[in-house]
Design a protein that fits this description.
mainly alpha; 114 residues
């Protein structure tokens, strides 16, 4: 089901990228960034679950889907932030590294709890 939603989100991203011009309207940038972030999150979450399933010798533990959804959401959030920062002209190397490092630190903190 998530792959069907991801395919729909990728179709919406394709529509926005091919038909709308971001130079004239800033809402196109935000909507495109949100659509691309959602498409990435919906694509990455099931893949992360499958990797965890294989890593655990084909045993699905309770909470694996929530962990995969959280990690997919973090990937989507990073994509949205990087696109919006790039569109505003505020993206630099230190800011980009910070945006990428913060979800990694969040995930390390949440994974170390167990």
């Amino acid at each position: 089901m998530l792959f069907v939603l991801a395919a729909t989100a990728w179709a919406a991203v394709g529509y926005v990228l091919t038909t709308l011009d971001p130079r004239g309207d800033s809402t196109v940038i935000v909507s495109g960034a949100l659509l691309l972030g959602a498409a990435m999150a919906l694509t990455v979450a099931p893949v992360l679950w499958v990797f965890g399933f294989i890593r655990n010798r084909r045993i699905a533990y309770r909470g694996d889907w929530l962990r995969a959804a959280r990690r997919g959401g973090l990937v989507g959030l990073v994509v949205v932030l990087l696109i919006i920062l790039r569109a505003q002209g505020a993206l630099s190397l230190p800011i980009g590294l910070f945006v990428i490092a913060m979800p990694i630190l969040i995930e390390i903190t949440l994974s170390a709890r167990r």
